[in-house]
Design a protein that fits this description.
Elements: H1 10-28, E1 43-52, E2 55-65, E3 68-73, E4 90-92, E5 99-101, H2 102-123, E6 130-136, H3 138-154, E7 159-163, H4 171-179, E8 183-189, H5 215-224, E9 237-241, H6 248-252, H7 254-260
Parallel strand pairs: 3-6, 6-7, 7-8, 8-9
Antiparallel strand pairs: 1-2, 2-3, 4-5
Amino acid sequence: MSYYPPGFDSNRAVELGKLVDAAYAQFNHRNDSTFCWQPDGYQILSCLSVVEKGVSLPFGYAAAKGADGFIVIRGTQQPLEWLDDAAIIPIPFRAGWGKTTQGFERIYNQLSSEILNAVKILQTRVDFQNLYIAGHSLGAALAHLAAADIFISTQLTATSYTFSGPRTGDPAFASAFDAANLVTWRVFNTEDVVSTLPLAAPDFEPQTHGLNDSVIEMAFKLLLRTGADGLFTHLQTPIPLTFNRGNLADNHNLTNLYTAL
């Protein structure tokens, strides 16, 4: 029998994991006009999208069911495709909220207005009581930024369940998150490399880990370097699971993760 900390709802986590899977289905069938991606029993209020190379792509949705509202954000199609040199440069998020990465900020800024508009729609519903935010991989980091942005703009405190997420921001961001009484449950596989990135300590040097400057090692050095001010930390409560499917993609897979709950 698995142990979960007080307050963690494994049934809710599985529900939200399945909602994020629906966001992946939404993306994968984006060119199929006959595909119905609305999860059973949920009312889709709006779609979230980003523009990549001049093309608008679905990145999630806002939904409602009974008294609950949901902001659902998918991740990328490849576990590490968001990790490039520009993505991990630390930059300020909001005033008093420390720093996130340039890559996370760039993508979230495209989603911010759609997310805040969806929250306004939810607040007009007479039965609305609870807001949940869910995201996987890159979407996990975006979910944390969304929770912060919603609080800053509306004072509404959302609960987030994130899956296989990287570190979202620096210690100042984590402190502001706590001070706002925001709650996040970070579900992850201990054998998944994505949850270890960006590195907690700045300026990764292969030599300090006994590595040589091979082509692969130098590539990771460039990918993971954050500079002297690049100190990142995870948020709040971890929900660690352990399974090894033998490759990066399956260890990072969302369905595998929430099924293990």
